[in-house]
Specification:
Helices cover 39% and strands 13% of the residues. The chain is built from ten helices and ten strands. The strands form two sheets. An eight-stranded parallel beta sheet has the order 2-1-5-10-9-6-7-8, sandwiched between helices. A hairpin with a 2-residue loop joins strand 3 and strand 4. Helix 4 packs parallel to helix 5 and helix 8 runs parallel beside helix 9. It is globular, with a radius of gyration of 18 Å. 56% of the residues are buried. The chain binds zinc ion.
């Protein structure tokens, strides 16, 4: 079997206050998607908890101690990041699912893995919980892949928010490429086009900030003109995806107009890169996505795209005239000119 899903019924135990977007129904969506895959003969496994050693590769020890002290308690760690009594354990399972996905793909037991997790991770900094995130799941995965022999790891983050935590954890590391498309200006405020990395990592942070209101064609341009050529030149040994679906036109938290079909196209483009560069080795971890219908449809289309035949991506046409993607791509090309042929 080429695709495996990793999910846990315990993700529902991360309870947030009433009205909070990271609500328990998000876990139920993931259960439904996993159950349908299993019913169709697909493989679904439950994760183990990430170990202290795995988490400590990207988080500092004092922070890990502070998070461990929230065990059994409901507390607010920042204005929108809350724990319930079980969050400490659930967050360890989410990071553990990302580790498990990497192990399956790196060991060759599966070609692709999708970790359906909550809480999300890409806003979590080395020593700070923020934006609904506690442990940076995708960063824990990337660090784990490096210890398993991956020389070059690429992370593509199509969540509508910039993954500030992921960028900061790897911005000085030339072995981990981070590419993010995101609404900008917007929460969390980082992800400007001139943030291209630090020191030896300069050029290995690729930001595609896009103005609110972007449609499918804008994402197609940003992907095809910048993200995909950079990936092909970097030639990763493993492709990681921060799969957030809050750029969807139905999402209540953000203001983009991306269709479910465009998420299929993005995923298929990335799969094609993985096929060219690294024998299709690819893993995805969920991030945001706050409209339950859009989240269900997007996850199902991603599962279908990863398990079906590898065909050329068919980008949908919204018919809306927008220059947002072109402006973003042009700015990124200028910023990245010293590092990549674009
Ligand atoms: Zn998001």
């Amino acid at each position: 079997m080429s695709l495996i899903l990793i999910s846990s019924e315990h993700f529902a135990d991360h309870q947030t206050p009433p009205g909070h977007p990271e609500r328990v129904e998000r876990a139920e969506v993931m259960d439904v998607v996993a159950a349908r895959w299993r019913d169709g003969g697909g493989e679904v496994v439950a994760p183990r908890r990430a170990t202290h050693e795995q988490l400590a590769r990207v988080h500092d020890a004092e922070y890990l101690r502070r998070i461990s002290e929230t065990a059994g308690q409901a507390v607010a760690l920042d204005p929108d990041t809350y724990t319930s009594t079980d969050t400490y354990e659930v967050a360890q399972l989410a990071a553990g699912a990302a580790v498990d996905a990497v192990e399956r793909v790196m060991s060759g037991s599966h070609t692709m893995a999708l970790a359906l997790v909550r809480p999300p991770g890409h806003h979590a900094e080395r020593s700070r919980a923020m934006g609904f995130c506690f442990y940076n799941n995708i960063a824990v995965a990337a660090a784990h892949a490096r210890t398993m022999g991956a020389q070059r790891v690429a992370i593509v983050d199509y969540d509508v928010h910039h993954g500030n935590g992921t960028q900061h954890m790897f911005e000085s590391n030339p072995n981990v490429l981070y590419i993010s498309s995101h609404q900008y200006p917007f929460y969390p405020g980082t992800g400007a086009v001139d943030e291209t990395g630090v020191g030896a990592g300069t050029g290995f942070t690729v930001n595609l900030p896009i103005e609110a209101g972007a449609v499918d064609e804008d994402y197609q341009t940003a992907f095809q003109d910048v993200a995909l050529p950079v990936l092909r030149q970097f030639k990763p040994d493993l492709l990681l995806v921060s799969a957030g679906f809050d750029a969807h036109e139905r999402d209540p938290l953000a203001n983009m107009r991306v269709s479910t079909e465009a998420f299929a196209a993005m995923t298929l483009e990335l799969r094609a890169v993985a096929a060219e560069c690294c024998s299709e080795r690819m893993m995805l971890v969920t991030e945001g996505g706050y409209d339950l219908r859009a989240l269900t449809a997007s996850l199902e289309t991603v599962v279908k795209t990863l398990s079906g035949p590898l065909e050329p991506a068919r980008w949908p046409a919204s018919g809306v005239k927008s220059s947002r993607g072109r402006l973003s791509a042009e700015a990124a090309k200028r910023a990245l000119k010293p590092f990549w042929r674009l």
